[in-house]
Write a structure and sequence with these properties.
Two copies of one chain form a homodimer.
Chain A: E1 10-11, H1 14-23, E2 27-30, H2 37-52, E3 57-60, E4 85-89, H3 98-101, E5 110-113, E6 124-127, H4 134-144, H5 151-164, H6 175-186, H7 191-200, H8 204-216, E7 218-220, E8 225-230, H9 232-238, H10 242-245, E9 260-266, E10 272-278, H11 284-289, E11 294-295, E12 299-304, H12 307-328
Parallel strand pairs in A: 1-6, 2-3, 2-4, 4-5, 5-6, 8-9
Antiparallel strand pairs in A: 7-8, 9-10, 10-12, 11-12
Helix pairs in contact in A: 1-4, 2-4, 2-5, 4-5, 5-6, 5-7, 8-9
The complex binds manganese (II) ion (2 copies).
One manganese (II) ion binds near residues 38, 90, 133 and 164 of chain B.
């Protein structure tokens, strides 16, 4: 159930947000489901800052925290208490709290976020779309709060920055993002370790599945379209889990000249989950809409049946139409 | 032929280096063979700065400049003249000039470099091992020279930083590296484009060679060491050029648990160029020094003979010693 913006909800300054937090106690910090480096880094950094101020705080997330983020949570506890104040971090909409945290959806006192799409569901909110990550805002907030930036907090803030900018690869990283990162380096952030863990480390199973997926990759339309697939058997053979499959859908589009990258992943029922990634000239969402799917202009999905051959045939027909239209325009 | 340090060679301040450059004219800027983003970015940035000062300058490189660096060379010309002053950038040793530029090996007037292993072959030199890239030094040099940092120069300096830090992933990136990057963002560097071109795009040939290299990867010492190799035949089959081979050496170390990643690349004469990449606990340079090679603590190289089997055997013996020492300490 989407909460509509109530008339008394309002934007507050960082200074007022800090005041609210310092006047409160028994604080819950909410993370979004399928937690990423930014929601977790923001929550952990704020937790550590509020603990310095003697507050009782707990971090709440509807999903388990992936192990790779352990370094941010050293010494952090997750006590259960009745919250007097609820702060959501990096959460654009209460729906993203997920089932388990949905009881808090209507009760968020403060939201700190950088999504321009934020639905302003919280009683008070600090929304800064110009920030590359919520941790970039958290840096200012902790500074305003006069918290000491420990090396652990530095790791948390750096983590949100690097994960939300794809290791500084997306256009959202500004000069200020680099300045905050520089300050976090000075405060002891272990950037090399963090980036290695987040971006450079492949499990053996991931390596195995990647080898196999690359072997299936074929090219069409003069190399403008690449299609790869993953069967359940390939996943089984490589020992890959869901985390290992993360980002596999990006592989075909990474090849030079590819404007439409397609990855087909066999589901339990034998149908194929199709992921389409496109360059600036092609709308992935439109291609997938033809098969009842959808998504963003650059990344969309749908489901097709008919085995590898049948599914590939259908998607290639849709791709062909796109290129024909391109030529005619 | 390795030039030994002559007694009159000396370290100079940036200020003196700038003075030398501004007093000179008809300047050659030398890049190392198999040019990378740092040697090219340094040369292009310095070229543009010196052109602002009205100097006749030319960039010289023993190998062709890969197309992906084109954005740094817009408007840059490569005139042929008899140089009155020769400046080497990012070149640790005159051997790295390659055959074509070897006539200049004994005549380098100034060297700007960040390699701690620099053999101090130039008459005067600025060597700063604490800099993540030579372009990080070039930033200071251009500042000292009072050159205007155009967006093209910003792209050049950012490029050296990001390529030499593996997109901020290596331990050589310091808070100062981020500060310089921030400044380059302010000056108009297109970081998102640069990082996409450098790190996210693979040629078809690159994909082919990567498939093959991944297939050769084997693991040793309980998965703490991974070794992959590339033969000339594999390169031929995949159609890969030197540019396509860039970063191949990083693949073995990317597998979870690997502390020492080794890539062996067959050279024309059948010997193998060994690249060793290590985690924080292991000094790659020491391993390679055993075979007459060298480099940085995290990335070093040497040459071995004896075919795939012989070369692998030798390097694994050296790796074994490292792990034995680790256990005993
Ligand atoms: Mn975020
Ligand atoms: Mn360099």
């Amino acid at each position: 159930m989407r909460e509509t913006m109530s008339p008394e909800n309002k934007s507050v300054s960082l200074h007022d947000a800090v005041k609210l937090l310092l006047e409160a106690d028994d604080i819950y910090l909410l993370c979004h489901q399928y937690p990423d480096g930014d929601t977790l880094g923001s929550a952990a950094a704020l937790y550590l800052g509020l603990r310095q101020k003697g507050k009782r705080v707990s971090i709440r997330c509807g999903d388990p925290i992936p192990q790779k983020y352990d370094y941010m949570f050293e010494g952090i506890e997750f006590p259960d208490f009745e919250p007097q104040f609820i702060c959501a971090v990096d959460i654009a909409d209460p729906q993203l709290l997920g089932q388990r945290l949905s009881p808090y959806a209507q009760r968020v006192d403060l939201c700190i976020d950088h999504h321009g799409s934020n639905t302003k569901y919280a009683r008070q909110y600090v929304i800064r779309p110009e920030a590359a990550s919520t941790t970039e805002i958290m840096y200012d907030l902790l500074f305003t709060m006069e918290a000491e930036i420990t090396s652990q907090i530095a790791d948390c803030i750096y983590t949100g920055i690097t994960t939300d900018t794809g290791c500084f690869r997306y256009t959202n990283a500004t000069s200020r993002t680099y300045i905050v990162a520089a300050h976090m380096m000075d405060k002891g952030a272990d950037a090399a370790m963090i980036n290695r863990v987040m971006f450079d480390t492949k499990s053996r199973a991931r390596l195995e599945i990647e080898r196999r997926v690359l072997d299936t990759m074929s090219f069409y339309f003069g190399g403008k379209c690449a299609v790869a697939y993953v069967t359940r058997e390939m996943v089984r053979q490589s020992g890959a889990n869901d985390e290992d499959m993360d980002g596999i859908a990006a592989l075909p589009r990474q090849v030079e000249g590819v404007e439409i990258g397609v990855t087909m992943r066999e589901k339990e029922d034998g149908s194929f989950k199709i992921s389409v990634r496109t360059g600036p000239k092609v709308n992935a969402s439109k291609i997938c809409a033809e098969f009842g799917g959808g998504g963003h202009p650059g990344a969309a999905g749908c489901v097709l049946t008919g085995g590898v051959t049948g599914a590939k045939h259908q998607i290639l027909s849709a791709v062909q139409k796109v290129f024909e239209k391109q030529e005619n325009s």
